[in-house]
Specification:
elongated
Length: 171
């Protein structure tokens, strides 16, 4: 994994090389280099290890996702803010089965750093609501469920929200 600044330097260097190729009348080489440079720009905004961890989670392979996330040694230095949010979000999902205290910290930090998609933010808040519910913090849990319901525009989490609301009524 390249540091985020190295990815930017590579992108700018390849663009400069592409401009030089255009000046030298090597149009094909210049076009290829511009297309090649978009890989580094894409990887600046979407970290490769986070993408691979998401693919492993999609296959329900939690150990594989942990392995890919373990490759990120210094998330504060190597990732931009949104990527740090997703790093914490994925760690929260992976840890939520075993350690609720640590999962709560990961989800809170992910929400604080920000997530790009409303569905991911809704799921993080719903997980936090479940953790708050297990700790008998009814007010916090109901507030988080309401926020998750507002963020869930496509009703993907409708059943989970209804289940947590039913549990809230029992307390």
């Amino acid at each position: 994994m390249f540091h985020k600044n190295i990815k930017l330097v590579l992108f700018i260097s390849i663009i400069a090389l592409a401009v030089w190729q255009f000046i030298e009348s090597n149009i094909g080489n210049g076009i290829f280099l511009i297309l090649f440079s978009t890989i580094f720009l894409f990887l600046y905004f979407r970290n490769e290890f986070i993408l691979l961890a998401f693919l492993q989670l999609r296959k329900q392979n939690f150990e594989g996702a942990k392995k890919w996330l373990a490759y990120i040694k210094n998330p504060e230095g190597a990732l931009i803010t949104k990527q740090q949010g997703y790093y914490n979000y994925l760690n929260g999902l992976l840890v939520s089965q075993t350690n609720m205290v640590q999962a709560e910290k990961f989800f809170k930090k992910a929400i604080q750093l920000g997530l790009s998609m409303d569905q991911d933010l809704a799921l993080a808040k719903l997980n936090l609501a479940g953790i708050a519910l297990s700790r008998r913090r009814k007010l916090e849990a109901s507030q988080l469920v309401n926020e998750a319901k507002k963020l869930d525009k496509h009703n993907v989490l409708k059943e989970q929200i209804a289940m947590i609301k039913a549990q809230l009524k029992k307390i």
